[in-house]
Amino acid sequence: MTSQVSSPAGQADEANDADQAGETVLGGQRAPHSEKAGVGEKEIRRLDRVIIRFAGDSGDGMQLTGDRFTSETASFGNDLSTLPNFPAEIRAPAGTLPGVSSFQLHFADHDILTPGDAPNVLVAMNPAALRANIGDVPRGAEIIVNTDEFTKRPMAKVGYETSPLEDGSLQAYNVHPVPLTTLTIEALKEFGLSRKEAERSKNMFALGLLSWMYHRPTDGTEAFLRAKFAKKPQIAEANVAAFRAGWNFGETTEDFAVSYEVAPATQAFPTGTYRNISGNLALSYGLIAAARQADLPLYLGSYPITPASDILHELSKHKNFGVRTFQAEDEIAGIGAALGAAFGGSLGVTTTSGPGVALKSETIGLAVSLELPLLIIDIQRGGPSTGLPTKTEQADLLQAMFGRNGEAPVPIVAPKTPADCFDAALDAARIALTYRTPVFLLSDGYLANGSEPWRIPDVDELPDLRVQFASGPNHELADGTKVFWPYKRDPQTLARPWAVPGTPGLEHRIGGIEKQDGTGNISYDPANHDFMVRTRQAKVDGIEVPDLEVDDPSGARTLVLGWGSTYGPITAAVRRLRAEGQSIAQAHLRHLNPFPRNLGEVLERYDKVVVPEMNLGQLATLIRAKYLVDARSYNQVNGMPFKAEQLATALKEAIDA
């Protein structure tokens, strides 16, 4: 969905959580305004932001529920950030803790950066969902529970000896017991569905209830359901009926005496047309835009792997833009086909995650040797080996930097937010096409599955990525003969010419054995090998990347340096510290190879450099080795993104140390 924003960008502070005089507080969140209810009416409170978490079995449709609530929130004009969290198993055991799936959404009337540290509202569809998430819920928060599932057997599965709804263990929260299953079945009696079929719509009942509570639009969801189940109109109408029943339940029940409004974030965005977008979708659009701006066909050679498969699915829908997708039999075949497409004059792309990068490493080295443009999209996940397929991590940086035999340097680009994946894809394509080199783009599961508003750019804002293919001889021999040398380089970029196969007179040899400078002939000469190795390294070192920008309004002594998806939590933590009067600087790297040319000078300006990463200190290792700076690591490898409060505490300790 898209929404129009026509107000200038404003500044808001995500750290501004503290209670303020004269304001109502709900679940730790400020409610600055409240409309008193008249006779027969319910009270409406206005909040500046809310964090909601939907949780249930992996078959309960929590991801769909969260996605629909997110879409309506985006169309309403709120700023938002999401965190889907689901098991790796296709269908984990029902009612168990490993089978819990959740979707967290943070939306606000101002600029926000993270999905939030703790939910103000938890919707728990069963005892497992409650048990798995209650530790994250702050005192005073709202908990909506499906009481129909709180029977002896489901509770015993997760270790509840007595019902938490009755033993007083939830007295610190505002608990709303709702028989979601019973109410859904009752609402769908007229459709003649079996009990099991009717139960499946209980997530739509919950969505309707939450949509009423927070005044979300409903037309989009009803249209979505009718489109999704167009071939099963009875199921479509049943889901719409369940959705409306949830809305009506909120409107009529006495248990929900208050509803809430979160105004559109009219001051948070520059003027433009916006839509909600996930990282993988933004990446897909960025690849298509890059190919169009380069006037090249886009070829994706890929093997399905979580969490990168969505890119393959999305690009397969866009044949009208000259996109060709190939689902290969394995990872090696996928990148081999992509490299072959690059040799043939296409923008070649392969998508994968960490385990697939390991399998592709030999072909990446071949691409380095052939000096052809190729994009390797690595959506990082927890490792090693199969690891945590549906959880996030940043642990492939050193693999991308060094994970090939021989000296095989590859540029590395990392987006910082879901929407930034679009721009990062364009940037990676620029580097690959300009310098004739494979390029790594390191996203991760948090960015891939998370979403936020994205301003749809005008076409004239996009970079011109057009390239010139070789068209004839480019070298003259001593006897005056004009020939084509495939490794005769551009003096500025050190890029070799890109010769499309079949062009008369441009025949040349390719392969993995070392090439002779200029001619491209096979060469075992030691001096030539030394020259080619150093030249390929110099080409990568010479890539033009913007200088690193530093946010330092007060001349701080401590710098926090991040890369990739840590941007949101780091920025939120820095805002909190500055709101408390602390002085701290922030910088965030998009280009990890080569580093920005001013990075060394930036690091020298600070007494302390802290590097938060979702690994055991990979960027910090590179920084310490290259710049001899005592960079301090702050690390987390639990499969989840950092929390802002957690980072703020760690950074405060670093400042005070």
How is this structure best described in words?
- This protein is an alpha/beta fold.
- The protein has 20 helices and 28 strands.
- The protein has a seven-stranded mixed beta sheet, sandwiched between helices. A six-stranded mixed beta sheet has the order 7-8-6-9-10-11, sandwiched between helices. The chain has a five-stranded mixed beta sheet with strand order 23-25-24-27-28, sandwiched between helices.
- Helix 19 links the parallel strand 27 and strand 28 (632-635).
- Helix 4 packs across helix 6 (202-213).
- The longest helix is centred in the middle third of the chain and has 20 residues, at 233-252.
- The radius of gyration is 27 Å and the shape is globular.
> If helices are DSSP runs of H or I spanning 4 or more residues, what is the number of helices?
20
Stretches with pLDDT under 50, minimum 5 residues: 5-34
Largest sheet: 7 strands, mixed
Helical content band: 25-40%
The neighbouring-strand order within the major sheet is 15-14-16-17-19-18-26
Strand content: 15-25%
Average of per-residue pLDDT values: 93
* Global Rg: 27 Å
Total strands: the figure is 28
CA(first)-CA(last) distance: 47 Å
Shape: globular
Structural class: alpha/beta
